[in-house]
Amino acid sequence: MSMKSNAGKVGKFLSRPFHREGTPTRLHPTSLWREAGKVANIYVAPVWAKVIAWCKRYVTPVLATISTLGFVVMGAALVLWILGAVFGWQEAEIAALFAVLLLLIAIAFILGKSMYAVKLDMARTRVAVGDNAVGSIAVANTSPRTVLPAALELPVGQATALFHLPRMHAGQVHEDLFTIPTTRRAVITVGPVRSVRTDPLQLLRRQVLWTDPTDLYVHPRTTALDGPAAGFLKDLEGLTTKDLSSSDIAFHALRDYVPGDDRRHIHWKTTARTGKLMVRQFEETRRSHMAVALSVNTDEYVHDDDLELAISAAASLGRQAIKENRELSVITQRGPIRCETGRNLLDDMTRLQGHSRRGTSVDLARTLSDAVPNASAVFFVVGSKVTPAQLRSAAASVPPGVRAFAVRCYSGAQPARANIADLTVLTLGDLDDLAIVLRKAVA
Questions:
Q1: Which among 219, 220, 407, 399 has a CA at the least distance from the CA of 300?
Q2: pLDDT of 422-441, one tens digit each?
Q3: Based on the domain organization, do 277 and 393 belong to the same domain?
Q4: CA trace torsion 50, 52, 56, 60 (10° rounding)
Q5: In the sheet that 377-383 helps form, which strands lie side by side, from edge to edge?
Q6: Number of domains within the chain
Q7: Is 175 helix (H, G, I), strand (E, B) or coil?
Q8: DSSP class of residue 223?
Q9: Which domain holds residue 268?
Q10: Domain of 143: which CATH number?
C-alpha cells in the first residue's frame, strides 16, 4: 500500500468528531425530542392510559350524578370556606359547612341498590299518522325486602314521561299503561326505561337504565285503492305495444306461414278456405312494472303538508301495487325506496326528509328513465309549484309507449285532470280523493 493512500485514511479518521472518555456527547435538539418521545411512549403512555380508564370507570359516573345546582352548591361551599379562612369570616365558614351538610344529605338519598326487573312492551312498533301507539311498563321487585317509592322515566323522542312506583313488597309487580299520540310522520325512539333517585333539592341525581331503546315507526297515512281505482291500476297489466310477435296474448292479424313458425298458431279454418297455411300474428304485451317518482324537493311544494300529502299518495300507490303482486320501483332524489314488502316501503317512506338541494322533478324523471327502463306505467308525484314546462320536460324522458301520469299535490285543491302532450296531469287536494283522481285519469 502506498504512502499516499495511508495518509488519506489518517485524514478521514482525524476529521471525525472525537470525544474523550468521560466527556458527554452533545445531541441535536431534534434528536433529543425524538428520544424523549420514545421514552414517553414506553413509560408514560401506558400509565396515562390506565389513569384515563380509571377515571372513566370511577370518576365519570360520580360526576354524572351531580346536577347543575349541585355543582353550584359545591363551588359556593369552596369559595365560602376560602373566604372564611382568609378573612376570618365565621359566617362564611358556617355557610360553607351548611352547604357541605346539604351535599351529605343528598348523598344519603341516592345511595342504595335498586333491584328491579323492568319490561317495556310496545303493542305495535308501527302505526299510521293519527293512530295512538299503546305500550306498557311492568316493574317487578326482585329484592328480598320491601323497596321504597321511586320514579321511572321513559324518554319518548325529545320528551320524557314520568312514572311513579309505589312502595313494593318482595316479588310484587307494578304495571303502568301509556299512550303515545302520533301527529306527524317520524321514527320515534322510545326508551330506555330508567329509574331515578334524587334528593328533595335536586342536587344529585342517580339513574339506572333497565331496558334497551325501541324504535316506533309512525308511517305516512295511506288510503285503500279498491273498486274503480283498483280496476284502473289493473288496466295497466299487460299493456300492449306496437311490436308484433308470433307468440303472445293480444291477437293482431293473420299472415302466411313461414318455415319455422310454431304449428300451434296455424289458423286451420282460414287455411282450409284459402288453400294455404295461415298463422296468427300477435302484438307483444309488456309485463306490468309500475314506477313511482316521488319528488322531495321542498322548493316544489307550497306547504310542508303538501309534501306529506305527496308521500302519502306515493305510499298508497305502492301499497296497491304490492298488494296485487305487481313489480314496483319507487325512487326519490335521495335514492331508491325498498319495495320488497309493504313494510319496507312504509319504513323507508317514514325516514324520508324534504330537501331543497336535491334536484328538480325533471332531474328525477331522467334518473327514473335510466333506473327503470322497462316500466309500463310511470307516476310523477310532485308539488304544485312544478310548472307545465317542467312537466313537459319530465314527460319527454319517458320512453315511447309508456303511460305517464303526474300527480300534483296541493292541499285543499279540487280533484282535476289535464293533459300535457302524452302526460296525464292529475291534481290531488286530499288523500281521500286519490281514488277519484285515478278515475278521472280514464274519464
A1: 407
A2: 899 999 999 999 988 888 77
A3: no
A4: 140
A5: 335-337, 327-332, 289-294, 377-383, 403-409, 423-428, 416-420
A6: 4
A7: strand
A8: -
A9: 241-286
A10: 2.60.40.10
